[in-house]
Design a protein that fits this description.
- By secondary structure, the chain is α/β, with parallel strands linked by helices.
- The chain has 2 domains: about 280 residues, 3-Layer(aba) Sandwich (Rossmann fold); about 70 residues, no CATH class.
- About 40% of the residues lie in helices and about 15% in strands.
- The chain has a 9-stranded mixed sheet, sandwiched between helices.
- Helix 3 crosses helix 5.
């Protein structure tokens, strides 16, 4: 895969594949330098999309995989019956998308009679999607990138604000990777069993106290980060008797799942707890001064997340944004429009500002994890070196 990124300062692509552009070693050196500078900011937040769970190593499902799984021979029998009544053409190429399909079904159920076949089809699709997201069977192998990503970001000074990881993914890649590393995750659930969701847990922290002396000094525990699962999780279960009661459980059924399944109704569902609280904290974090936002594997197809990001970029002068995608040129394509409108908007803002407040890195999540520098405190010699570079200028800047 080509390593390249769009440098808004120079307004050109920098790639390792062309003779007139910087070599790969210099590319990685410059990227690491830019990342090190950006990640020194007090507040670090991450938005991880489905792309962080894709690839030959992680093996998470793509949207097309979900479509194919939901339209097998057995499912097509049910699908054709409900689609014939609702007017959805199952064979049209543009309709072969599970989000479009479920959006149509849910809209039909809202305006028409509750058709048994349509309800059954939607239920079976949700069961299949839930099952497909339980793909982790070899954590040590599949979660190599996630472990490296978490290990590096969690190695900040413990007195700094905790890193906030927001994700739209249903899978448990981030929490499983943290478990392998022995890193504590604050995810909004209680530390007692059963684990019950309460957003107030995000306002708590973990400290280490010296119990062998009378000293009242406390030290924040190293390697703790906060995890916000914006669309729910495969192991979140909504209590049928008390809909506001959310628990972590194993073998969650689709009927009990607290997940926002793919459909245009995601925007409306985000106003239901616990998702409302999670979205609110996402928007609030974007407004914090001196914040670095890393966006990885996210296609900006969810307006309820893309709009707050755009608003923050336009209104928060202290926000630095790093956007990571393995297909930047495709994402920026304009004719015909093949991707979200926000890619073009963010590119235009980056070009107009002519600085590194927004920059793009063309690589997948695994590669990006390897590019992140360790966020340990710099030694005095390193501090002097960094200050000298800023004073006299560095290479390729």
């Amino acid at each position: 895969m080509s390593n390249k990124y769009y440098n808004s300062l120079q307004k050109k692509w920098i790639s390792d594949q062309k003779d007139d552009e910087i070599p790969n070693d210099d590319f990685e050196t410059e990227i690491r330098g830019k990342l090190k500078s950006a990640l020194q900011m007090p507040n670090i937040m991450v938005l991880a999309g489905s792309g962080t769970s894709l690839g030959d190593i992680v093996k998470g499902p793509k949207m097309w995989d979900l479509w194919e799984a939901c339209t097998t021979a057995d499912m097509q029998i049910v699908a054709h019956e409900c689609f014939n009544e609702s007017g959805f053409d199952f064979e049209v190429e543009s309709n072969k998308n599970i989000e479009i399909c479920l959006s149509h079904c849910e809209a039909y159920l809202q305006v028409g009679a509750i058709i048994e076949k349509t309800t059954l089809f939607v239920k079976k699709c949700k069961e299949i999607i839930l099952g497909k997201c339980l793909f982790i069977n070899d954590k040590d192998v599949q979660l190599v990138g996630h472990k490296e990503f978490i290990r590096k970001l969690a190695r900040r000074k413990s007195k700094d604000p905790r890193v906030k990881v927001f994700t739209t993914n249903y899978d448990t890649c981030f929490e499983d990777a943290a478990g392998l590393l022995g890193i504590t995750v604050i995810d909004g659930f209680s530390f007692s069993i059963p684990r019950i969701y309460d957003a107030r847990f995000f306002d708590m922290d973990i400290v280490r106290r010296n119990t062998t002396s009378s000293s009242t000094n406390i030290h924040y525990l190293e390697g703790v980060f906060q995890l916000y699962k914006l669309h729910g999780s495969t192991n979140w279960s909504r209590d049928q008797t008390s809909s506001y009661l959310i628990k972590q459980a194993e073998n969650v059924k689709a009927d009990d799942s607290c997940m926002i399944f793919p459909a245009k109704g995601k925007y409306q569902q985000s106003y239901i707890q616990p998702h409302l609280e999670l979205i609110a904290r996402f928007s609030q974090s974007l407004r914090e001064p001196n914040t670095c936002l890393i966006i990885a594997g996210f296609g900006f197809n969810d307006d309820h997340l893309s709009e707050p990001i755009l608003s923050a970029i336009l209104s928060n002068p202290h926000l630095k944004v790093i956007i990571v995608s393995p297909s930047i040129e495709y994402d920026f394509s304009e004719e015909p429009p093949r991707t979200s409108k926000y890619w073009k908007i963010f590119k235009k803002i980056a070009e107009d500002r002519n600085n590194d407040e927004i920059f793009f890195i063309n690589c997948d999540f695994q590669k990006f994890s390897s590019l992140i520098p360790d966020l340990t405190a710099l030694s005095p010699a390193e501090n002097l070196h960094e200050n000298m570079k800023k004073l006299f200028g560095g290479s390729h800047v």
